[in-house]
Amino acid sequence: MENGDSIYNSSTENAQNQSPPPVHDDDKTTYIKFLLSNAEAGSVIGKGGSTINDFQSQSGARIQLSRNFEFFPGTSDRIVMVSGNIDDVLKAIDLVLTKVLEEFYVDDGGDSEHRSRVRLVVPNICCGGIIGKGGMIIKSLIEDSRAAIKISPPENMYPGLRDRLVTLVGAIGEQMRAIELILLKLSEDHNYIQSINAPFPYPAAGFNGMNYGLNGVGGKFQNSRPYNKEEAASSVTIGVADEHIGLVVGRGGRSLTEISQVHKLVSGARIKISDRGDFMSGTSNRKVTISGSQRAISVAEDMITRKVASAVPAMS
């Protein structure tokens, strides 16, 4: 992926559509936060912290994660913060995302250009810098990276929450290019650098809310969310666009069976899809209810979301 001053670019076939690579300030300390499911976070940490220590050694960046079942409000995902100079941060993110992609979503010999999503956590006060007047900056980021980029609306933020989610959908090269461009923009904002505090300043969110995901995956409502025991039973209902529900079910129910079987191995999740015409309030999204342990719910939800993401075309 190396290419002169810019380490992370999207695939070579898109190189002609990209602007010249930006020059990185090697001495500037910066950071970025993003979300991982509980299972993904465990994989990145590794046995006795071996994997995360290896990633920190390889990249030179510092990688911190929220504790088990300390989630970003309105999600069942843990928060990761990577800090260091820009190139080190990008290297660490690439190591983390590649590990997650290969372990959870790409079979041996599978498609290395598998489209998936990454959700960045960005201070609300800094989002204008990546949107631009009339959306001009975000349009240029989409054109350059070839990733789909969506920012959660400020009116849906929880009371007291100062961060928004920036969702990137694409192949890993496209995601890394988008992250690089976004990080460079954010690092120019003194408000962003001043926000390099504890990576997880969020209160425990045991209340209902929206999960700002990719196109086609809508609101999520938490029916019961105990935080003290890993295997405590609860359920989550997410919305999936009616036209995408077939991706979750699969031919003859194959995808649904595959997801359920994976989660039974984890801790026994159950998945129920609402009947046709039974939508989440105010939407055309079908209800998909996942029941089981926190760990099973997190893995199931992420698999469903990624199946939908695979059908969302890149924005240009």
UniProtKB/TrEMBL annotation:
A Pfam family recorded for this sequence: KH_1
Claim: RNA-binding is one of the keywords in the record: yes
Domain of life of the organism encoding this protein: Eukaryota
Name the UniProt record assigns to this protein: RNA metabolism protein
Organism (species): Lithospermum erythrorhizon
Segments of this protein annotated with the region Disordered: 1-27
Keyword RNA-binding in annotation: yes
SMART domains, A to Z: KH
MF-aspect GO terms: RNA binding
